[in-house]
Amino acid sequence: MQENKSPAKAPAAPVQPLKKKSKWTKDDTELTILALPTTIWYVLFCYLPMFGIILAFKDYTITPGANFLTSLLNSKWVLFDNFKYFFGLRDFPQILRNTVLYNLVFIVLDIVLPVTLAILISNIYSKRKSKAYQTLMFMPHFMSWVVVSYFVYAFLVTDKGLLNAIIRLFGGENVPWYSAPEYWPAIIIIMHVWKVIGYKMVVYLASITGIDESLYEAAVLDGASKFQQAKYITIPALRPIIIMMFILAVGGIFSSDFGLFYQVSRGANQPLTPMVATLDVKVYQMLTSGTVSLGKTAAASLFQAVVGCITILTANAIVRKADRSSALI
C-alpha cells in the first residue's frame, strides 16, 4: 500500500520590510503654506490679545508717559477683587437671570422654527416662489440693529407710532411702550426671531437638499404622507446639524446680542432695565460710566468667556456620551 504524500509547499516569499514614510513631504509643505496666513491671523488677533486677561486681576492705573502695556505691567495685582465687585453688584442676579432665560428661549425657538420653515419651504414645488421666500426671510440677517432700532421706534413711539395708531383705530388708548417693561420680553423675543430665523433656516434647508431623494420616493410608494416623510426621513437626517447648532448655542448662553438688548430698547434705561439688562449690556454700561475701572470690566468679560467655554464643553461631553458621532469635539 502506497503512502499518500502531500505535495511539497512552495517556500514563502520573503517579507519585504515596509518603507518608512518620510517625516516631511512636498504635500506637507504645500498645506503648511496654505494654512500659514490663517495661523498668523489667529495668533495676532485671537491668541496674542489673550495676554490682556491679566487686566481682570489688576487695578489698572495709567503710568504717566507710559504706553498701555507698561501701565498694565506696573499696575497693582488685586487677584479676585475685581470679580468680587462684579458678583457683588446689586443687580447681578437680575442681569444673570435675564441673560440665561432669554437664551434658553432663543435656543428652543432657533431650533423649532427654522427647522419647521426649512421643511415647509423644501416642499414648495415652485422653485421661484421658494427662492423668493428664502430671500425675504434671509434679508433681515444683513440689517444692522442700529437701523432696526429706528424701525422699531417708528412702530412703538407713543404719539405717532404705527402700532398705537392701529390701537386707536379700534378704539383703544395709546400704550407707552418705552415706559412699560412688561411688554418687552415679548418684543425682544419677536425681534430676535425676526432677525435670525432666515439665516438658520437656510442652514437647515441646505442640509435637507443633501438628503437622498430615493428615500422620499420609497416613502411615497409606501403611502407615507408629507408629515410622515418629515418625521421619519427629514428630521432624523437633520439630527447631526441640529445637535451641532444646539451645542454652539449653549456655548453662548451667558452672552447676549448687545444690539438687540441695547439698541432696540434705546439704551436699556429705566424703567426697561429690569427686563432688557443682560451681562453684555452691563459690561458696556460699566465701561462707559467713567467710574468703574477697566479691571472690573475685564473681570466681567472674562467671567462670560470662561463660563461659556465650560458650558460648551459640558454640552459637547453630554452629546458625545449619548452619540459620539454627533459631538463637535
Would you kindly provide a written description of the structure presented here, covering whatever features stand out?
The chain contains 14 helices and two strands, in the order αβαβαααααααααααα. The model has no long low-confidence stretch (mean pLDDT 87). A two-stranded antiparallel sheet has the order 1-2. It has helices at residues 26-47, 68-74, 81-87, 92-122, 127-138, 145-156, 162-169, 184-209, 213-221, 226-251, 258-263, 273-276, 279-289, 294-322; strands at residues 58-59, 76-77. By secondary structure, it is an all-alpha fold. 64% of the residues lie in helices and 1% in strands. The termini are far apart.
